[in-house]
Amino acid sequence: MDAEATVGERVRAYAWPRAKLVGGAVAVGAVVGAALLAALVVAGGWAVVGAAQFAFALGTLAFGLGLLGWSGSAMAGRGFENMQEHLDTNTDWTEADSRRAMARVGGFGGGAMLATGVVEFVALGV
Amino acid sequence: SKRFIAKRLLLLVPVLFGVSTFVFAILHLSGGDPARIIAGQRASEEVVRQVRQDLGLNDPILVQYGRFLVDVVQFDFGNSYQVSKGNPVRQVLIARLPVTIELALYGQFIGLALGLPLGILSAIKQDSLLDHTTRIGALAGISVPIYWSGPLLILFFSGYLGIFPAAGRIGSTIFLDNSWTLLGMELPLTGMVTIDTLLLGRPVAWLSAVSHLFLPAITIGVYSMALVSRMMRSSMLEVIRQDYMRTARAKGQGAKITVMKHGFRNAMIPVITVVGIQFGTLLGGAVLTETVFGIGGIGTLIVSAINATDYPVVQGAVLTFALLFTLVNLGVDITYSYLDPRIQQ
Amino acid sequence: MSTETTDVGAEREERGRLQRILSSPFLSDLLSNRLALIGIGIILSMLLIAVYARVFYDLGALESSRLGGSFPDRAAPGWAGGPAAANELLFGTDQAARDIFRRTMYGAWIALKFGTITVGISTVLGVTLGILAAYYGDVTDNVIMRTMDVLLAFPSLLLALALVAIFGAGLWKAVIALTLVYTPRFARVVRGAALKVLEDEYIDATEALGAKDPRILFRHIMPNTLAPITVQSTLNFGLAIIDIAALSFLGFGAPPGSPSWGKMLANGVEFGLQSGRWWMSFFPGLFLALTVLGFNLLGDGMRDALDPRMQD
Asked: What is this model's ipTM?
């Protein structure tokens, strides 16, 4: 770390890569969620509201998994490492890796929820 | 350190947020129609529509999700559809929770009390007859399902020998008060019969409670013993193999014993961290054990709720299990941070 | 996905591989392991029983019949003071006067069949995910594997119960739920093995020659991960059988009349436990535990033979 870095620079150095990671995942999630919704409606012949609710629920699975995995990695990380070392073959599990991956998964789910939720909101309103 | 504990406590928020989100998905991904379940199969379309409206199932899903989260924070899952029809799920859960906690605690205790010494002995006397017996025993322990070992214990100790009761938590003729008094203050009971009977000062009832709990606790304890002993053996072997242990052993018997004691402390650390994760498996075992022994805890509740597609109860029970699991892991983590000073950053 | 190309070169390569496997220290290690041999013996016996029961017993009769109607319900085995001759009605009858012996034998078929399906599907899913993760690396790897790790941390029975709550009850649905529960274990093992293969240079060489992705994945990586996959499948076979039976025991798997071990144990607990009719729970459970033990013994032996770390 640069000793002369201003607070703003430090915050940016900390927040920017994280925001980029989660933001990217949210964007991908939103696109995939919308695509799934469109596929259900167009190809599957679902009603818009029903399809949105279903896609939303699928999104909550990813979102929940991401949240749980993210916090769980921090919480039980050492237990995992020990368990794998003593009962299983070694893997290269690290807490940081796991949290990054879970932030992606969670962001993806959140994006899907957001997109489908908004579409349903609009569809119900119209 | 306090900061460490505060940080861990803060982690509870995303964990429970995550589980609640999962639990929300259970209802919305399963095909069943809650309104139809509540109204009954023969209810008219009109009634079902009304129920649907009342439940808020016609609202936008984002609104439903938000409302669900707000409810969960208050531990409010609405009313049971079937299992305890019309009663608030929270009430049902609170009544049943101590039953499961009691069983799990005793089971975990027995698992550790049997598994740790077995694992240590097995490691110290590596490749001896005892070691092989223990390892095969542990293998047999995970091969015998709870829903077989439980019935066998009942058939032998209850049916054949007649020493222990076969089912329930306490003798059917024993009734416990709803509260106990300490220094003139009226206090609520814990709901755990082995503790309540002591608080009430009723030794006969206590004996009854203990003898009822004995077989289920052994059943679930032997199940968790297998993993603990395997883990302990592996961890202890690693410590024994370290250089300083070798030199200590060369110095003679006395030094060997002191070092073993020291080694035990080091070997315990990874085992403790795994106990937290293994507690989840133990809760799964509790579902089976409760069913075998006819104990009305969260485990049997979840089974009957799934059978009756009683979603609020399923949701509440799943979240309760997750809460238990998380709290145990939190406790494990804090214990661990005291044992291993390296992580007290 | 067609991996079956039958040109001569491939066949020769195949034969070479077989020979290598047969002469490998792995097999001789395994065969010198007494416990593993016992495991193999148990598994083969169960397989024999299963096939015999499947061929010669009528499932419909086992589910409903009263065995010619001559024996009462919940009768003790003949040799244990039951109403039949000593060599008849070996395991007694259940609450619907059905012959527990034949039902238990047929249970072997059900357990092995659904165990195979569960382990088979999760192996295929796990292999696919694991190889993809190893091959593409980076973000794909991280996201796939860490997700698998999180799923792995869930207690298997509780996760299966949550999935059953979504899917509903039934043997096939239970199998689907358990498939999802078991996939992560395979993915992890396969990824580890695949990474080792990728480290070998010859993959680089093939890649340089211009082979396309799927070809590398299926022709070079997958065959080399076979050994660890086999070990993992064996180890998980026993667990899968226990978990399927557990779901049946709780009422979410096999239908009520089914001669599956889990359901029979549920009957034993419901109708035989309080009255001390031990044979109703004892025999189905014994066969279940023996089968699982067989797979665990064999799996452990295989792991020891494969993993030099365990041998010192």
From this structure: 0.85
